[in-house]
Write a structure and sequence with these properties.
single chain; 261 residues; alpha/beta; 6-stranded parallel β-sheet; disordered N terminus
Length: 261
């Protein structure tokens, strides 16, 4: 009989401890932001987010993808706000490349709990996107060709080298041939808001990005006081390193949802 006592005590302790352990897990999860809004950059559309979308939805997130018209900063911001309006609670707003400018302006929306910049631009209010390049090294492999009506495409001959050198030839060809041109005048539009001044920020920096000088990416991320994650990837980091991007968004969702200390 005495031999049964340790086993009974262990069972009783397990029973008494399990609910609190589960409660701790539930408490941590209850603070997580459940909605994610993904904003693509120039020369692409929202379909490139598919690997990140699949990862995040498997983790239980409700993910929405903005389709930017790329016709002006105002049009892209309005497209993003329409999606934010449809969220059923706080959201993490994520931008890639030019999408960083868009989330900087749109991120003051009251549904936005935090911002994630994925190899993205991060201007301040009163600045233009074009100003962010001043003083940094040129990017000779990222060549933009501007049409007569002012819209820009990446040079087909340079596309893989400049945008997606770590993808397969087939994937790079599809991205090249499905480009969405951007109205180049958008880069000269002055921002009215800088959401990163009032919202917590995270950044993923692709260390093999040929669209931006590395020093420029680091400068922007450090200026906004983002929590920085670096990963070896091209400008198409959202496709080639989706787990790293999703992990950063997951971290943002958990940390942004915690009460201020």
């Amino acid at each position: 009989m005495f031999k049964l006592i340790p086993a009974l005590l262990a069972a009783a302790l397990a029973t008494s401890l399990s609910p609190s352990a589960h409660a701790d897990d539930a408490g941590r999860d209850s603070g997580r932001v459940k909605n994610v809004v993904l904003v693509h950059g120039a020369f692409a559309d929202g379909s490139g987010w598919r690997p990140v979308y699949d990862d995040l939805t498997a983790r239980g997130y409700r993910v929405s993808i903005v389709q930017n018209p790329l016709t002006s900063l105002a049009d892209d911001v309005n497209a993003t706000k329409r999606v934010l309006d449809r969220q059923d609670g706080p959201a993490i707003l994520v931008g890639h490349s030019w999408g960083g400018t868009v989330i900087t302006e749109a991120g003051v929306h009251d549904k936005v709990a935090g911002l994630v910049y994925v190899s993205a631009l991060a201007p301040d209010a009163g600045e233009t996107t074009a100003q962010q390049y001043t003083g940094f090294a040129p990017t000779p492999e990222f060549v933009i060709e501007t049409s007569a009506d002012g819209f820009g495409f990446i040079s087909p001959a340079k596309f893989k080298a400049g945008f997606a050198h770590d993808t397969t030839d087939a994937d790079a060809a599809f991205l090249r041939d499905s480009q969405v041109p951007i109205n180049m005048s958008a880069f000269g539009t002055t921002l009215t808001h800088a959401a990163w001044r009032s919202k917590p920020s995270w950044a993923v920096i692709a260390t093999e990005d040929k669209a931006f000088d590395q020093a420029m990416l680091i400068h922007m991320a450090e200026r906004i006081e983002a929590r920085i994650t670096k990963v070896s990837a091209s400008h198409a980091v959202f496709m080639t390193q989706p787990k790293v991007v999703a992990d950063t968004i997951d971290r943002a969702a958990k940390e942004a949802g915690q009460p201020a200390r």
